[in-house]
Amino acid sequence: MTSIDDVAVSRAGGRPRVVLGVSGGIAAYKACELLRRFTESGHDVTVVPTAAALEFVGAPTWAALSGKPVSTEVWSDVHEVPHVRIGQSADLVVVAPATADLMAKAAHGLADDLLTNTLLTARCPVVLAPAMHTEMWEHAATRHNVATLRARGCVVIEPAEGRLTGKDTGKGRLPEPAEIFELCTGVLARGTAAPDLAGRRVVVSAGGTREYLDPVRFLGNRSSGLQGYALARAAAARGAEVTLVSANVTLPDPAGVKVVRVETTAQLRQEVVAAAVAADAVVMAAAPADFRPTEVSDAKIKKAADGSAPAIELAQNPDILHEISTDRARPGAVIVGFAAETGDATGSVLELGRAKLARKGCDLLVVNDVSGGAVFGSPDNEAVILGADGAAVDVPYGSKTALAHRIWDEVAGRLPD
After folding, report:
1. Mapped to the 3 state alphabet, what secondary structure does 182-201 carry?
2. pLDDT by residue (tens digit) across 135-158?
3. Is 360 labelled as part of a ligand binding site?
């Protein structure tokens, strides 16, 4: 059986065919970095800019980076019927940046240049990465066009917030090329144009919380946040509106994801509980600290002259997973927990996982064997996904992105219509 990690390198003789559309926005220069990532990872990329895009980045640049001639017109090489062939043969079409004008044309089926013809003929997954001023993004016409495109199966990434053209700041900035690339490879790996989480709101927590002893010291854990971020990217690639509650993670923000940063378990609980009210699914991939000091020193705790260590009294933190599982703010919401187990005299990793699943009351529990520090900080993972309905899905060793998609497969199958 072919794994999700193998799909992206199995098409077109090992070279997945990607069409990179570029429309006429100032962020067009960032698409050069996106193109480089695709070509250096072995993708066969055809760049299709609009005429306006060439005002920002010229055709020689696109040709040099892609190794292919570049055209904006349907009249070039007419005998090869490029306005039909390019879209028909693609495994993925991504437009970055996608302007308000480009999305309006795509939503209404207009086809007056090579890129819009390609979008109209493509039967593969389509990803649009909008970039524009905040007022343009928030305009009712743009919002309607985005909703239309999403309803038809396009993945329209939420733009980032930050510096725009000139001195303006706000929502409308093109996400970082590295993050667009990660999302696109996730879409490509699934090999389907169906965004099965479109219209769904999901919450993902990631990272490890910190419980401070004094202004410089804290109790923490080894969670890197990599799995939670992979889950957020995967959900966005499948069309979901994603809120990522990130505890002390230094990774770049996933494209199209709302990131809420926290430090302590109390802060994590507050944000997750608040976001869960409107969520169709909550995945608790974060590692909240089980305990916190009962008192936090205002000043750095000094070493004692006699060499003795200070006594630290601990209190148990609230159990966030149990709380949102047993007191569900939204009926029908799917709740997913994680269990990092090592096995001990009381039971094996899976036995302890099943006991935790019953104790927490969640719908799914992803069980990791972390003996010897496995998983932490690694780009790869393996797990068993246990279901409250008795299901048990073995996910073999592979990328954390592959595991993330397998988790969302299980979630999607349990969401109410």
Report:
1. HHHHHHHHHCCCCCCCCCCE
2. 999 999 999 999 999 999 899 999
3. yes
